[in-house]
Design brief:
Layout lengths: L15 H13 L6 E2 L2 E2 L7 E5 L3 E7 L8 E6 L2 E15 L5 E16 L9 E5 L2 E7 L15
Antiparallel strand pairs: 1-2, 3-4, 4-9, 5-6, 6-7, 8-9
């Protein structure tokens, strides 16, 4: 068998792990970071936009399909954490009450933001049409004037 192989173009060895990785990419799309920092993470990150509105920031987070009671926003020191959990169960039984099919769907999103420089006492939140909107008022910063130092 060795004599039948072209020495200039050796046949690559079959790698089942590479095949599984290719299947996973084709099925799920782009690499999905299931584990970030050792913690389980959903297939898609919590997508957000942060807009500078002059005297405030507007943070908009996509949370389609969640109810308002599924979402929590917590502030601890200079960190704001948005978390959303959802669990949906669907079950079908036949006329005898025997289970035919059971499908469970769970979604979990969690993301933290640094809010140093934000007036945490006056943050407001609204949730409508699958978008969580947080208004983060900026802290009043005393105006500083630039000055040059004389080099000796």
């Amino acid at each position: 068998m060795y004599g039948m192989m072209n020495r200039n173009y050796p046949m690559p060895a079959f790698n089942p792990w590479q095949e599984m990785a290719a299947f996973e990419r084709a099925f799920f799309g782009a690499p999905h970071r299931r584990h970030q920092g050792g913690k389980p993470h959903g297939f898609a990150p919590l997508r957000t936009d942060v807009i500078d509105g002059g005297n405030h920031y507007l943070l908009e987070a996509e949370l389609p399909g969640f109810d308002k009671q599924d979402i929590t926003v917590e502030i601890l020191e200079d960190t704001l954490t948005v978390q959303a959990k959802r669990s949906a169960d669907a079950e079908q039984t036949d006329s005898d009450g025997k289970l035919i099919r059971r499908e469970r769907s769970r979604s979990f999103y969690k993301r933290s933001f640094d809010i140093s420089g934000v007036d945490a006492e006056n943050i407001t939140a609204k949730y409508a049409d699958g978008i969580l909107r947080l208004t983060l008022p900026k802290l009043e910063q005393p105006e500083t004037q630039a000055r040059r130092l004389e080099i000796e």
